[in-house]
Amino acid sequence: MKLMLRKSLWSLMLLLAVGVAAYTIHLLFWSTHVPPFLRERLASHAPSLYFHLLGGSAAIVLGALQMNMRLRKKFTAFHRWTGRVYLLAVLMSGTAGLEMSVVATGGWVAKSGFATMALLWLATGLLAYLAIRKGDIAAHRNWMMRNYSLTLAAITLRVYLGITFGLLQMDFMQVYPIISWACWVPNLLFAQWFFVNPIPRSSISNAVS
């Protein structure tokens, strides 16, 4: 039962990651119904937007693969190479995201929310890289988990947007600044709790193995 639950949780994460990545690529290259705010960004900051969205799409899928313990142990070389590509994707997307945060919709609250997330995304990726270069596997794993919790903001952002605007029909300008923080802060807090709480750590870590 526990093994089935672990596999189900990881499969759900992978499915959502692939879904977000596929939707993003479709929106950029094939969709004829691009949201107005995205059209504005494509007109004014196309290179940064493409780097941010394509890098983020690669990171969210590769990161999900990195979280699977069996894949890490069975395909060590694959894990190392996909890890390198993942960190490069984070660097590309995070740097572009930091630039995009300056023109984010929603005023200074939204701009500071997305800018802070981009900085933490880049910083945790750098710390994960430095840790593995030193051979500190435990620290590397911890920083990567924190980093991927920020990558998953791509999913939580869309969930909140779907709930607030799709279901509740709330005002975009009032809610979006809150979402700019809510899409990643709980993710990072959960990742931090994951490492500092010694009681459930082992049982939760198996959920992504």
TrEMBL record:
Question: Per UniProt, which keywords does this protein have?
Answer: Membrane, Transmembrane, Transmembrane helix
The lineage's top-level taxon is Bacteria
Classification via Pfam families: DUF2306 (PF10067)
| InterPro entries named in the record | DUF2306_membrane (IPR018750)
Q: Where are the transmembrane segments?
A: 46-65, 85-108, 114-132, 148-168, 174-196
Q: Which named protein is this?
A: Putative membrane protein (DUF2306)
> What is the protein's species of origin?
Solimicrobium silvestre
